[in-house]
Amino acid sequence: MKILVAVKRVVDYNVKVRPKSDGTDVDIANAKMSINPFCEIAVEEAVRLKEKGVATEVVAVSLGTKQSQEQIRTAMALGADRGILVETDTELQPLGVAKCLNAIIAKESPDLVIMGKQSIDGDNNQTGQMLGALSNMPQGTFASEVAVEDGTVNVTREIDGGLQTVKLNLPAIVTTDLRLNEPRYASLPNIMKAKKKPLDTTTPDELGVDVAPRVQTLKVEPPAERSAGIKVADVAELVEKLKNEAKVI
Amino acid sequence: MSLDFDSARLHNPFLTEDHEAWRSQLRKFLDSEVAPYFDDWDEAGKIPDEMWKKAADVGLLQLGYPEQYGGISEGIDLYHAQIVNEELGRIGSAGGIASTLLVHGIGLPPVVNFSQEHIKEEVVPKVLSGEKRISLGITEPSGGSDVANIKTTARREGDYYIVNGSKTFISGGMGADWISTAVRTGEEGPMGVSMLLIPTHLEGVSRTPLDKKQGWWCSDTATIYYDNVKVPADHLIGEEGHGFLVIMNNFNSERMAMIVNMEACARCCLDEAVNWAKDRKTFGKPLSKHQVIRHKISEMKQRINATQAYIQVVTRELSGGRGDFGDIALLKVQASETMEFCAKEASQILGGASYLRGCKTERIYREVRVNAIGGGSEEIMRDLASRQYQL
Ligand SMILES: Cc1cc2nc3c(=O)[nH]c(=O)nc-3n(C[C@H](O)[C@H](O)[C@H](O)COP(=O)(O)OP(=O)(O)OC[C@H]3O[C@@H](n4cnc5c(N)ncnc54)[C@H](O)[C@@H]3O)c2cc1C
């Protein structure tokens, strides 16, 4: 069984990003970049399936600038067998990414695609779903448990109000939620070995995909600063203020 | 530009993708396996035994040692090791963890570089896998700076050396299975000094803990006594009378490790102080808007920059097989003074909060002195440098 995992290069979750002063984007110059935490969970799940003998090969794919190679190498240090970079300097949006991944699926014919439910930069939460539609594969999103058996996969989904388990025929697409697993850290020997694992590069053009942005960003600004609260003496004052000042009751 | 730990690092053109990959994974290891427990280990006065195995699993123990003995050296350079000492500083360790979990960093190189082959094969793989531990024993109750005048003797008798004397301030000494020990085998002065690998299980070896220290609480520092200890002669490290050379060879890498860690600790204090200064309000505005505080922050950054730049230059020299003894000695002073200054200023900015345990600045502040004294004191470092100037 072959598993394809998608990994994205994003600003490290520890970095506090701020909007640029001209409001065109956030300022990420010199910021530490990492693999998107949800993608890391996807890699971990794929590697665990391989360790259990369920999967035989794990292929990590990333889309983005040349530097995204670093995140593919990280995935390989964590246990992926090889990597594919779809290199482009174009600003990527979910639809373009889903189309490229669909083209990779056509080439690689994986039995299972595991990806993050969202990336912590754009927080779009769309790519997995779009890929499901484009590839005509069943999807199990927000997974907190994944169990593969006889040509199917049971995905336990975190939904409002509880857990839902769906059974999908393979090949299928799974997007990971936070509680699926706790990713390991790669050891120094594995980091060194990852340098020798194969990493192929292609481009959206070669895949025949148009990744031109469909959504235009008009403005990026910080959330409005909250003004300080006040203390009220009693319930009566609270009700009075809610009625007359806040005008919410 | 912000002044968090990573942003306050000057650009280093020699750091590659590989180095950063190691940093990221190591940081994860430290953030999940070390940082949350560090205060408890300090209070308990020890690091749990299972940490040695964990450190070996991530590759920390093996870094830089020859592959044939279970080390990791292919593709590894000085920067990989520096990242370890830097990341330890990031979690607020000014030597406590290094002098315990990674104390083989000073105890093992003499064996790797100068011991007989069969001894290397017996010792090195076990230390690198975390199964056994090794420390370095130079300092004696009568003094540590004047290495050429050590008093512990090793008298040759047939196939053995008979060792008498004592060593003190030995980091990791309570848990060590072996101690690379400086002994006197000959005449007075440096030419009479040899290095001998002494197994601590031998009859006549006893030890007592030095557990009431200002800092490095998690480290099992010891005084070791040797009473007619019979050490097999093949445990001699290098040749008889060449001990001083072995020791001096070791000092450069020990000092560089301390230097990199001290700069990182200074930066850790800066990070903590800046975060606090932006949040804390006094006299109607954030601390960071008061000029006195802003200037403290600038001066911290100024000294940190200077130390980083100096580290970069010396590391570049060392990578090229050069590296000047005197320059490294002075860099150690630069680093301990910078750490001292930043720990002090951060403490002032944090105010009372910095006086409570659990604050990284608090620990770093109380670990300033051991860094300014151990591994060659500031006075000795300046003296060592000045001797090279034909004054
Ligand atoms: C927590 C801790 C852990 C340590 N771990 C180890 C270890 O693992 N292995 C090991 O071998 N040692 C270890 N040391 C010992 C350390 O290396 C020594 O403390 C250091 O070398 C200084 O030696 P000393 O304390 O005997 O001071 P001394 O040599 O007695 O010197 C006392 C003071 O006088 C100054 N001084 C000495 N000579 C001169 C001079 N000629 N001119 C001007 N000033 C001078 C020194 O700078 C120092 O400030 C450790 C020390 C500490 C505190």
Structure in a nutshell:
Chain A is an alpha/beta fold and 249 residues long. Chain A is built from seven helices and 13 strands.
Which structural category fits the helices and strands of chain B?
A: alpha+beta
Bound molecules: flavin-adenine dinucleotide
Task: Give me the count of strands of chain A.
Answer: 13
Task: Specify Rg of chain A, calculated over alpha carbons.
Answer: 21 Å
Strand segment count of chain B: 10
Give the class of chain A from helix and strand content and strand pairing: alpha/beta
- Percentage of residues in strands of chain A: 25-35%
Separate helix tally of chain A: 7
Describe the structure.
The complex is a heterodimer of chains A (249) and B (391). By secondary structure, chain A is α/β, with parallel strands linked by helices. Chain A is built from seven helices and 13 strands. In chain A, strand 9 and strand 10 form a beta hairpin. In chain A, helix 2 packs across helix 5 and helix 3 crosses helix 4. The longest helix of chain A has 15 residues. The termini of chain A are far apart. The relative contact order of chain A is 0.18. Chain B is α+β, with helices and mostly antiparallel strands and 391 residues long. In chain B, a hairpin with a 2-residue loop joins strand 2 and strand 3. In chain B, helix 4 crosses helix 8 and helix 8 packs parallel to helix 10. Classes of the chains: A alpha/beta (249), B alpha+beta (391). At the A-B interface, helix 2 and helix 5 of A face helix 1 of B.
Helices and strands, with pairings:
The complex is a heterodimer of chains A (249) and B (391).
Chain A: E1 2-6, E2 9-11, E3 18-19, E4 26-27, E5 33-35, H1 37-51, E6 57-64, H2 69-78, E7 82-87, H3 94-108, E8 112-116, H4 127-135, E9 139-149, E10 152-159, E11 162-169, E12 172-176, H5 188-194, E13 199-202, H6 204-207, H7 235-244
Chain B: H1 17-34, H2 38-44, H3 50-58, H4 78-90, H5 104-107, H6 109-114, H7 117-128, E1 134-137, E2 153-157, E3 160-170, E4 178-184, E5 193-199, E6 205-209, E7 222-232, E8 236-237, H8 243-279, E9 281-282, E10 285-286, H9 291-319, H10 325-350, H11 360-366, H12 368-373, H13 378-386
Parallel strand pairs in B: 1-4
Antiparallel strand pairs in B: 2-3, 3-7, 4-5, 5-8, 6-7, 9-10
The complex binds flavin-adenine dinucleotide (FAD).
